[in-house]
Amino acid sequence: MGGAAPPTEAPLVLVGCEGRRRVVLAADAAARRAGLRVGMPAAKAQALVPGLIVRDAEPAADAEALDQLALWALRRYAPVAAADPPDGLVIDTTGAAHLHGGEDAMLQGMVERLAASGIATRAALADSWGAAHAFARYGARPAVVIPAEESEKAILDLPIAALRLPKNMVEDLSVLGFERIGELAAKPRAPLALRFGPELGRRLDQAMGRLSEPIDPVRQPDLIEAQCVFAEPIGAAETIARTTSKLVTQLCEMLETKGLGARRLDLLFHRVDNRIEAICIGTALPVRDAKRLTRLLCDKFEAIDPGFGIEIMRLAATLAEPLAQKQTISSLIEEPEAGVSGLIDTLANRVGEQHLYRFAPVASDVPERSVQKIAPAAPDTGETWPDPWPDPWPRPSRLLPAPEPIETVALLPDHPPVSFTWRGMRRRVKCADGPERVFGEWWKRDAELSAVRDYFRIEDEAGERFWIYRAGDGEDAATGSHRWFLHGIFG
Amino acid sequence: MRTSTGLPIVEELRERIQRLEGAAARRRTVLPFGIKAIDRHLPGGGLALGALHEVAGGGNGAINGAAAALFAAGIAARAGGKVLWCITRPDLFAPALAQAGLVPDRVIYVEAGDEKAVLACFEEGLRHGGLGAVVAEAARLSMTASRRLQLAAESSGAIGIAIRRWRRHTEAADFGQPTASVTRWRVSALPATQLPVPGVGRARWQLELIRCRAGESADFEVEACDAKGRLALPAELVHGPGQREIGRRRAAH
Q: What is the ipTM of this complex?
């Protein structure tokens, strides 16, 4: 709404016509606090709350905005996404979660990203559309991942309103004494079907995942895609692979005419039973190499269940970026260095993008903060950890995930321990180097203002070398607890 | 070069075996350690490129793999090119690798979830061809898996280093099982070089060449990697025990 947007703290309601009455169709948090409810007559709401901002509801514009949001989800998350009117989005994330760090991280990221753009969301990930719909609206937490195969059990505790049934049917059921889905599911189906029609059983089955419910995905208007419709349904892996390679070649030609390279490819399999299976790959840099893209897609075929056969295969470059032609170095002078971006893509699609990284130095004396992970395809920084002249303090090749407390016999304030016990084994210290004093970084946390660590490099009688530190400077209790920790192991 | 047996028939048989292995078609290159004592024991005078090598730690090193990682980092640093490092436990400290000559820009880490995924990433890296070295930390390495890795390394010419690292001591017996790797090393920490002043000197390793295809096993005592990833022989071995005497005299002044 831009500059015309009303102030957020003022109560706001949207009104529209329901039959011949003008009623409140939506109310924001401030309005609800003031006692306004959805379904209340507009005149009454205005009388109750002075200064109430009233706007006309625009269902058509809402639907359009929801479609836009579905398109965003399609580009960003998964190949199958659709608007779930009036207020939801449904995304089939099968085979796409690995690109976003797993299901939990993806859902959390989705909620945070939407919150950052001012949309309060609740999200749920479950086995079926119906179950996810129910948990998103009636679950306890704003973002919840129901483990696979557990939706059917978990949904039994939700109220029957979660079943996407018509309003009057929910009311009738509650008159009969039904409150939870579990109670409804335990009853024989026939009398219920006789009283309420087939809708009730259908919704129940959909929520339980017994009845499939295909999602009709939104389509990007200017999507670059290639598709192949089969005369007979196919199912063999070789046929799928052959068709994929054909589709990729077609797609690459299309990309080339537009001067683009694919950053994300979605391959959709429309099955005979009206379900859509999808695989989704991402690349670190725009790619137009048919062989490489085919290879990335073929790596994912294991996840595909062709069922009774596949009727249509559709390949779309959901995310494409400009990729200009460039001349490679002539082999007359030197061999061009083979790039590793192909390898990065293969591995990223196999283990997940966040599990592939490079380390880069950070200007910090605290060991665990002196490294940061950067993207593997990031340009070379050319930096390394600074070496104090003339001889750098050696760093251990293994750094424990968390410093482990050790018991020591040591002379305060500035001597290394004489002996120490780590993981139940007592070791005598033969020689030691140190201390190397590391000060707390008060600009990061107030509590570190006076914190000090004294690092020692020690060697035991067997020749094993360890990196240990004492929290505190050995004199002033404000600098640390004066307990000893083992932080790393030298080679 | 390797010490020759002098028997012409043995030499001839060796050549025939090499031809059977298909090595004649490729010019097999090696990465020398730059230490005559070690290179003499390795066929071709160094670690074979385009081959799989195994490294394990001795004693507690079998579990923490600290020395083995540095040893591998030194080799990777000298091999040049980009390095892929496949891990399951994220406890590797990159500044230490940089001190062994492996600058952070050159290393790409893959954190694979399990042993199987590590081996798959290892093989993928070896097949790629654009990397100088591929290092993987794995506990189990079967004959079949190592054969695949060896073939992948041969096809691309990258050096493959499997750091064998186990979760407990009892599993370390697995290191005796046969694999298709070309060499097998064990690196154990030894007391550091003695300094004439209090402190810890340059780290020393007991380097055991347990198995070497077309070569004999041997033991070495070496000084750990320097800033360029090079090993060194301890000074008293090179110059005799007199060196220590000089050090002591210097300290007395």
A: 0.85
